[in-house]
Amino acid sequence: MIPQPPDDNLQAMQGSPGARGAPAASAEPAPLPASVDIGAAPLDRSLEILARELLAQRRRERRWNVFFRGAWLLLAATVVFALVQQGPPVPPSGPHTALVDVRGEIAPDTEASAEQLLGAIRQAFDDAGAQAVVLRINSPGGSPVQAGIVNDEIRRLKAKHGKKVYAVVDEMCASGAYYIAVAADEIYVDKASLVGSIGVLMDGFGFDQLMQKLGIERRLLTAGENKGMLDPFSPQNEHHRAYAQAMIDQIHRQFIDVVRQGRAGRLKESAETFSGLFWNGEQAVRLGLADGFGDLDRVARDIVKAEEIIDYTPRENVAERLAKRFGAAMGEGIVRAAGARAALR
Q1: Is 265 exposed, middle or buried (0-12, 13-18, 19+ CB in 10 A)?
Q2: Rounded alpha-carbon distances, angstroms, from residue 87 to 82, 84, 91, 100
Q3: What is the mean pLDDT of the chain?
Q4: Are 86 and 317 in contact (CB under 8 A)?
Q5: Which band of pLDDT confidence, cut at 50, 70 and 90, is reported for residue 336?
Q6: Count of CB atoms situated within 10 Å of the CB of 212
Q7: In 318-345, which positions are buried (b, 16+ CB within 10 angstroms) versus exposed (e)?
């Protein structure tokens, strides 16, 4: 028999473990390169993102710091510029009409407070070139104390300097504003101006019935039986109400006396004159509450005979307005205590 060459395929099949029923050995995976680390890759990426975010945040902070520093520098420069630009008023060289505006509510810490008005009025009287003082009024009234202080000082300055004072009404001259106006020698109005309201009020609120409906108990301790007078959260006490009414009646009589003194010989009194009513300018002239019709220019030209008008009214400069907005305004209380006060309104 001729020998056959070995069959490679057969040997391979015979030599295969699977052919003999033995389990096949699993192939061993090739090792990864030393430079590749599956667990470290995501961590490096996270650190990189975190670093970029921190860097971006620092850049934003620096930009905002530069912005705010620039804003404050601009604000400071504006204040300094306003202070430098605002020099003392140059005294007028010739005859003129001195103007003082009475605008808004007459109360402490307002443009029409006694403190603000008296400084301007005194300066106007002291100026030798001022031929007369004109009060240009547009006010609904306010504090009887503030109005009384201004009225008294105007009459004192008139007697001291011998200068005339004229009141010119724009839109409104009511209550406390009219209290000031009657210190003038003459009052001029527009036909449609509102004039009068010679009266006193004390206003407030009462919450006791609402509290009772809501089941809220008021606990008020006082040392002095009348210390809680006019408390808005307690029922109204008739004795306290009568006392407050007598007090504002007395202030009303003071107001009436001042009007009669200032409008002596011209006022045509009736039952409604001191009732708190107000009238238009045409009615006010007819009732003797005013002397005639005219605005500031007409009074300066035809009555005072000095057409040049110099304004002595104190004005807030830019620095003061900024100080109030960024300083005092930020420190104001949000809630004011509820209470009542007398007002010439």
Answers
A1: exposed
A2: 9, 7, 12, 20
A3: 81
A4: yes
A5: very low
A6: 12
A7: ebeebeeeeeeeeeeeeeeeeeeebbbb
Q: Which of 63-72, 82-91, 220-229, 267-276 has the lowest mean pLDDT?
A: 82-91
**Predicted model pTM:** 0.67
Summarised one tens digit per residue, pLDDT across range 9-44 is: 444 444 444 444 444 444 555 554 544 454 556 777
Helix residue spans in the chain (DSSP H):
8-15, 40-85, 114-126, 144-161, 176-181, 208-214, 238-262, 281-286, 296-298, 318-323
Tell whether the model's pLDDT for residue 115 goes beyond 70.
yes
SS (H, E, C) 145-195: HHHHHHHHHHHHHHHHHCCEEEEEEEEEEECHHHHHHCCCCEEEECCCCEE
CB 110 within 8 A of CB 145: no
Model confidence at 80, pLDDT cuts 50, 70, 90, reads low
Residue among 188, 198, 190, 185 nearest 264 (CA):
185
128-131: long-range contacts at Cβ-Cβ below 8 A with a sequence spacing of 24 or more? 129/91, 129/92, 129/93, 129/94, 129/95, 129/96, 129/310, 130/96, 130/97, 130/98, 130/163, 130/310, 131/95, 131/96, 131/97, 131/98, 131/163, 131/304, 131/305, 131/306
φ/ψ of 193, rounded to 5, equals -65, 155
Three-state DSSP class for residue 201: strand
Residue 187 burial (C-beta neighbours within 10 Å; 0-12, 13-18, 19+): buried
- Predicted local confidence at residue 311, as pLDDT: 96
pLDDT at 79: 61
Q: Which two tokens stand for residue 213?
A: 């409906």
Residue 175 has pLDDT above 70, yes or no: yes
Task: Identify the CA nearest to 251 among candidates 183, 179, 180, 185.
Answer: 179
